[in-house]
Every structure is written in C-alpha cells, then in structure tokens.
Amino acid sequence: MDFLVSNLSTIVVSILLIVLVAAIVRKMRRDKKNGRSSCGCGCGGCPSEGLCHRRE
Fold it and tell me: Does the model's pTM come out above 0.85?
C-alpha cells in the first residue's frame, strides 16, 4: 500500500498518457479508414501523394 501512496502521481500521469495515446491512435485509424489525410493539409502538391492514396 505504501508503494501506491508514494507513487500515486506517477501512476495517475501514466494512466492519463496511455489514454491520450490510445485516443490519438484511434482517431488516426478512423481517419485512415475514412480516407482522410493525417497531415491536415491537402494532397494536391504533396510529393508523397502516391504513397497515401491510390490513384483511380
């Protein structure tokens, strides 16, 4: 019990960081599934456009 009390702040911060990272990964996966770009800009002038999206 002393371990939990003495490290409570570290445990809480670690849990918050894990939740935050999981939320970011979940959003990125949803965006990728829906065909959205993860960089936040248009793909018109991007040199890596062919890597992200297939041309039809």
Answer: no
